[in-house]
Amino acid sequence: MKDYVIANQASSGENYIIVGHRIDPDGIISHALLRRAFSNNPCHHYFVDYDDFFPVMQDINNRLKDLKKPHLIVADISLNLVFQDEYLFQGLGEKTESFTWIDHHLNTFQNEDFLVRSYARVVYEPHLCTAELVQRRYAYSHNLDSDYNRMLARVAHAHDFERRQMLEWTLGDVLQNIIKSNNNDIFGLSKLVQDLGAGNVWDEEGALAPHYQRIVQDCQKKKREAYVRLEENVDIVHCAGKKVLFAYADPILYMKDAPEHLKRINDVDYVVVAFEGISNVIVFGKGNVGKSVIEFCQSMGGGGRGHAGGFTIGHAVTEKDYSQDKTDITGKLEQFLESYNPKTN
After folding, report:
1. Where are the beta strands (DSSP E) in the chain?
2. Strand pairing partners for 282?
3. What's the CA angle centered on 269, arms 268 and 273, to 5 degrees?
4. In terms of DSSP bridges, do strands 308-312 and 234-239 run parallel, antiparallel, or are they unpaired?
5. Where are the beta strands (DSSP E) in 24-169?
6. Low-confidence ranges of the chain (pLDDT < 50)
7. How far apart are alpha carbons 258 and 53 in whole angstroms?
8. How many Cα neighbours within 13 Å face the side chain of 131?
9. Fewer CB under 10 Å: which end of the chain, C or N?
10. pLDDT digits (tens, 9 = 90+) for 99-142
11. Which of 238, 211, 26 is nearest to 135 (CA)?
12. Cβ neighbourhood burial of 296 (10 Å; 0-12, 13-18, 19+)
């Protein structure tokens, strides 16, 4: 598994393993804030998504014998059912000096007992993003109580909770484009975390550094082209009386971009998007009907927050297999909806 050490070699003798979401500003800013909090210690950063989180944790468990009781922090990852391996997590808890799970997804709250049995400290709050939880938890103990640290947390919050009227949302949207461009480049993500930690992404007036300006411009061009292809790969089906839009998307539109775009321009109850080369499927819902999205994703072993969620299907989606994947998901969704009672939600 890929990791990259970006810590100051001056050390107090304590090692930190930081496992955080690599896909969006909340996860990357959480990485950056933790980097700032433990800047005098060796920090091993693992950039993960839901399709590779479990094997990464297995790899970390195997490597712990080579580290002297490190501190393990997991940030912005929902504790989905498919991850709950008692033997693995108890091993992680027993081999580390401390095990902390910082998150704001429902599954983490619902499965807190599992983490506690694994000797983990759970930091959870549904109305804050993970970066805010990191900033507040380490504000005074590790010098995260500064205007810059709070600004980073606001950027993560505005983007994660879709506060588009806030200036920080614009900064978060720009940051999202940078992340998209580096999604499969661990060194690129590491450099971004390092630059965020050092305050080298924006200047004092909020202008983006020239290097990142070029990255954003290139990403925006690729996304415009991907949106055109996306709209050509739409299929609307009726499932248990609901209108469900399925689409096959370019990975540069992964997570929110594709389903948000499709939900905005189509009058449907659900949007289900599979992404080329990715095993994680994203589901968005509209209105009161959309509230069932989390429960559906949980029934598939995944999770989510609000009206959006996701689950993994065990293999990377390809154009060749997409038709069968769509058929399988339709069957599961229909089965779920036929037994779903919205009054219990």
Report:
1. 4-5, 16-21, 43-48, 71-75, 98-103, 121-124, 234-239, 242-249, 270-275, 280-285, 303-305, 308-312
2. 273, 310
3. 80
4. unpaired
5. 43-48, 71-75, 98-103, 121-124
6. 1-2, 4-10, 343-345
7. 22
8. 32
9. C
10. 999 999 999 999 999 999 999 999 999 999 999 999 999 999 99
11. 26
12. buried
Rg of the chain in Å (alpha carbons): 20
Q: Which of 82, 75, 30 is nearest to 55 (CA)?
A: 82
CB 204 within 8 Å of CB 191: no
Q: How far separated are the first and last CA of the chain, in Å rounded?
A: 39
Q: Are 58 and 83 in contact (CB under 8 A)?
A: no
How far apart are the C-alpha atoms of 189 and 18, rounded to whole Å?
Answer: 14
Any idea which residue has 């990259």 for tokens? 4
Q: Half-sphere exposure of residue 236, counting CA atoms within 13 Å on the CB side?
A: 12
Count of residues making up the chain: 345
Q: Is the pTM of this model over 0.85?
A: yes
CB 326 within 8 A of CB 274: yes
Q: Which of 8, 69, 75, 78 is nearest to 43 (CA)?
A: 8
Q: Are 329 and 345 in contact (CB under 8 A)?
A: no
Separation of alpha carbons 301 and 149, rounded Å: 34
- pLDDT computed for residue 7 by the predictor: 46
The DSSP element (H or E) to which 219 belongs, if any, is: helix 210-231
Which amino acid, residue 285?
Answer: G
Evaluated on CA atoms 42, 47, 48, 52, the torsion sign reads: negative
Between helix 210-231 and helix 257-265 the angle, nearest 10°, is: 50
β partners of residue 21: 48
